[in-house]
Structure formats: C-alpha cells, structure tokens
C-alpha cells in the first residue's frame, strides 16, 4: 500500500481525542489505512461482525487496543454505546476509530451522540504527492485517484469507474436515503458531468428531469455527502463590482467524470471542448485534498464578477487569502499573470498562483508560477 499523507494527521487526532471518524468515499482506502494502525476491526455492515462486537464489547472497550468500526452508520445503536464508553473514562484518547462512506448519515449520528468526543478526518482518493512514479502521476488526471481505478497500474479505467457508479446508484445511495429512482439518479449524474465547472442551476436541471429545484438541490446534498461532487461557493466580499453568487459544481474525482463522459484515453480527453473545465476541476480537487491532509483549517471559494473578471480558486487559511488561476498550458503568457494580478488585487490576495503544466517553479514576491506538483509541494510545506 502507498503511504497516505493523512496518516500523520490521523495519528495526531487519535492522540488528542477518545474517538476519530475517518470519512471519505467508498474504495478510497479507509479500511486499508485503518488496518495498518492495528487493533480490533469490525465491519458493521456485516451481521457476524455486529454479533462479535456485541459479545466482545466489554473486553474491547476495556482493553488497550484501538477499536475500528467500519461503516459505523450502518448500525445506529452503536453511537449511544460509544458515548457511554467514552464518558466512563474521558481521559483515555485513541480508543475508537469510526469509518464512514456517507457523510450526512454518519454526521447526524455523531452530532446527536458524540459531539465534543470525536474528531473528524477526511480521506480522499490518492492525490498527486502520494503517487510514487511519473507514469502514475500522468494517469491521475484521466483515471482519477481511486486505488483500484487504474491510476496505480494503468488497468481498469473506465470499466471500474462505471461499475463503481452503478453500484452507488443501484444500492448505496438508496440505502443511504436518496429517494430518487436509480434511473433518475443516473440521468442526474450525467447532467452533472455536463455541468462540471459551471455555475449551479437547479431550476434548469430540475426542468430537464421533471423535478422541482428544491428536489434537485436535496438530491445534490446526497451526492455531495457521498463525496461524489463538490459545491464551490462564490466568494462574498464588499467589492465595488457586482459578483456572481451561485456556487460552481465540480466532480471530485476526474476519473468518474471522464467515465460518465465516455472519454477512454488522454488523446480523446485533450480533444474535448470542455477539457479546460476538466483540468480546472482536477486542480481544484487536488489542491483541496492536499490541504485537507495537513489538517489545516481553510475555506475555498471562486470569484466571478458580472463583467467576467474571475479567480478560479480562492483559499482562505491562517489569516491569508490565496488566489489561483488555473491554465491548461505549458507556456503561460505575461497577460495570464497580469490578469491574475489585477483580479487578485480586487480581494487583496496575499499569494497569487498561476497553476499550469510548466514543470519549472518560478517565484517572485507574492507571485508563483508552477505545475500541480509544485503547488501541492508548497501547500504541504
């Protein structure tokens, strides 16, 4: 298994809290990472493991080993038992590790029973600096970061991604509470793929599906909670210019996006009219994944004014504001940097990144020109 950058953060949180919830999409590596930590493992989607945990409860909570509870939201009664065990000895940390693949269901249980007793850590699919070889890094944009989806060995894409989405649509999302018919969900996924990188318009998509915009927004909540898509909010500031207030919607994994859009290889991808939006979303997700792995608190936005001045990604962290322009080119121009400078001045950004495919790292004052690897490396310093 590749070392995961989140491991350091996870160990630190286990040292500071009685329980930690490690959340993220199915098949991103949560179980593999948890098993590497050792301890007692229980898969709470499996009835035999529930019975075993029930029979071994006193021994498990009284011992010194970490207790790992996979898909914890599948057995709701466990949360009250956890609260009782934690409250019986609040001074002991690192006792329980909960794994979950659907954020809303798990977080509802956590907020009801474990508030103040648990820390939350998110694990994403593999991102740039977690991959060891240049071929793996080159495959990452096309294939996405799921370990079994082809990024590690060049096999599986796009069949793995399509099977993954079909399983979510047919089984997992309905089990997690999404009320839509699977056929409707699949159509929604395809529309979201076509809308990748665009401003979210629930009314337009609802009209195509024969649904109200309220219903479409509620469905999007489920998809966001399942770590499939991300709503990037518009930046709100007291500017002299009128700004767009709708969020943008991105697929979080580029491989799932490309499978939905029937892109089989890199050459086909580069020939698509929407290739720039795909690259932009990929860089956004990789940037935020790298930030999450550090445990640093941050907020992410985009900015667009009504006269079409735009910043692709704004990150507010540790008292600073970073502005990023994302370009699919190896030869960024002086006008690209001048545009970034002018737009970043609107919000008084502390750092200005022009992220492209140029391998040379250039830095001058608050201005940086770099590729994705350079950006992720700078974030993790």
Structure in words:
With 381 residues, the protein is α/β, with parallel strands linked by helices. It has two domains: 6-122, P-loop containing nucleotide triphosphate hydrolases (Rossmann fold); 128-379, no CATH class. Helix content is 46%, strand content 17%. It is built from 16 helices and 14 strands. The strands form three sheets. A six-stranded mixed β-sheet has the order 9-10-11-12-14-13, with helices on both faces. Strands 2-3-4-1-5 form a five-stranded parallel β-sheet, with helices on both faces. Strands 6-8-7 form a three-stranded antiparallel β-sheet. A hairpin with a 2-residue loop joins strand 10 (310-317) and strand 11. Helix 6 crosses helix 12 and helix 10 (202-209) packs across helix 11 (213-225). 43% of the residues are buried. The mean pLDDT is 93.
Keywords:
single chain; 381 residues; alpha/beta; Rossmann fold; 2 domains; six-stranded mixed sheet; five-stranded parallel sheet; 14 strands; globular
Helix content: 40-55%
- As residue ranges, the low-confidence spans are none
Oligomer: single chain
Mean pLDDT: 93
Query: Which structural class do you get from the secondary structure elements?
Result: alpha/beta
Please report which band the strand proportion falls in: under 5%, 5-15%, 15-25%, 25-35%, 35-45% or over 45%.
15-25%
Number of strands: 14
Count of discrete domains: 2
Radius of gyration: 22 Å
Instruction: Give the SSE string.
Output: HEHEHEHEHEHHHHEHHEEHHHEEEHEEEH
How would a crystallographer describe the biggest sheet?
6 strands, mixed
- Please, how many helices? 16
Rough outline:
globular
Q: Give me the side-by-side strand order of the main sheet.
A: 9-10-11-12-14-13
How far the N terminus sits from the C terminus, by CA atoms, comes to 24 Å
